[in-house]
Amino acid sequence: MRQDLTGQEEILLARLCDFAEDCDRQAAAKFIGFLDEHQRALAEEALREIRFFDYRFDGGYPDAGRVFLCMYPSWFSEEERADSPVRCCHFSFRTCDVLTHRDFLGSLMALGIKRETVGDILVREGQAVVFTTENVARMIVNDVRKIGRVGVKISVGPCDLSAFEQQFEDLSGTVSSLRLDCVLSFLTGLSREKSLALIRAKNVSIHHMEATEGSRLLHEKDLLSVRGYGRFLLDQVGDLTKKGKWRITVKKYL
Q1: For residue 160, what pLDDT band results from cuts at 50, 70 and 90?
Q2: Is 243 buried (19+), middle (13-18) or exposed (0-12) by CB count in 10 A?
Q3: 176: Cβ contacts below 8 Å, ≥ 6 apart
Q4: Sign (positive/negative) of CA torsion 150, 130, 164, 155?
Q5: Rounded CA gap, 140 and 154, in Å?
Q6: Which domains are delineated in the chain?
Q7: pTM, rounded to two decimals
């Protein structure tokens, strides 16, 4: 296991190891969540180390940021593995009213709902979806009538998420190297020296794990998070130009 863990991270991984042993012994599925992206990365690393492979992550929809870790006995069928603790609450409100992620999260926290029981919150014009546990979904339906000062209607069940698909801005260009500091310079418009300063300040992560070396080489499908600049997917690495530079295509999360 990693040696640079916080107390909360140590508790999470200890719980994970206990659940890995309990799954077969108790013949029961075990769930841990909601996990944020960094916690998920830690969990995946720990599961590889203990060679536990009967698990999946579920946040209620593909590419969810906050997810449950679902662990199963090795002999569970596909049907049994489909069981999930995640529920989807759909909110509708007038399109002339403007609500944000912060409005929804604040209203839920004001009810005494704990952050770890709330997954992703997706907001669009006139509607939103909030992924939660079953108990919290029941509380929301029973107790929530307004988000801020805006009246809402709520239903729980399968949601049509077509209106909430992740949007990207496509970026393309060339870099002298696939080193992290070079790619950061391209993404942020900063010099390589200032890009290195971002890394030293612990403002950069790759696949939700802190990046520490500017010389680290990046690969296709690497996911970068840069505090103050956003999230980026290194979508494609092309051929070298005649001047020896790499052509790259990046998707910036909007």
Answers
A1: confident
A2: exposed
A3: 182, 244, 245, 246
A4: negative
A5: 8
A6: 7-81 (3.30.1370.160), 86-164 (3.30.70.330), 168-253 (3.10.290.10)
A7: 0.80
